[in-house]
């Protein structure tokens, strides 16, 4: 039996951290910076906004979190290029930790199965 209220594609996008929902102006406002800062971290290749059909930059929530972290570093005196590199390394470290934890869980589950 099909679900009574199938998910609406637009609603699904609102929950998607990677959906480019925010214009440059709105994104800058949300993280308390300027569009120029967003362009600068784009030029430094920290984030690459998607483009609308009209060619306007669009940002996702995930990109805004990264941009906000870069802004914190720049506000504390870190040069923008260094801030971008730090954020990239922090993101890579976080991903490596998640993978490591997942591998430990899988290995633990395999060890429990072998012991049974």
From TrEMBL:
Q: Which residues form a coiled coil?
A: 86-113
Q: Which domain of life is it from?
A: Bacteria
Q: Which residues form the HTH merR-type domain?
A: 21-89
Instruction: Tell me which UniProt keywords the record has, alphabetically.
Output: Coiled coil
Cited InterPro entries: DNA-bd_dom_put_sf, MerR-type_HTH_dom
Q: Name one Pfam family in it.
A: MerR_1
What name does the UniProt record give this protein? MerR family transcriptional regulator
């Amino acid at each position: 039996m099909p679900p009574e209220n199938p998910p609406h594609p637009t609603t699904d996008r609102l929950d998607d951290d990677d959906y480019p929902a925010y214009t440059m102006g709105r994104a800058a406002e949300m993280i308390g910076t300027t569009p120029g800062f967003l362009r600068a971290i784009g030029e430094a290749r920290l984030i690459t906004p998607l483009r609308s059909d009209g060619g306007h930059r669009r940002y996702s929530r995930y990109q805004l979190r990264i941009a906000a972290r870069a802004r914190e570093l720049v506000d504390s005196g870190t040069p923008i290029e260094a801030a971008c590199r730090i954020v990239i390394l922090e993101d890579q470290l976080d991903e490596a930790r998640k993978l490591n934890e997942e591998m430990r869980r899988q290995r633990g589950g395999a060890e429990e199965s072998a012991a049974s």
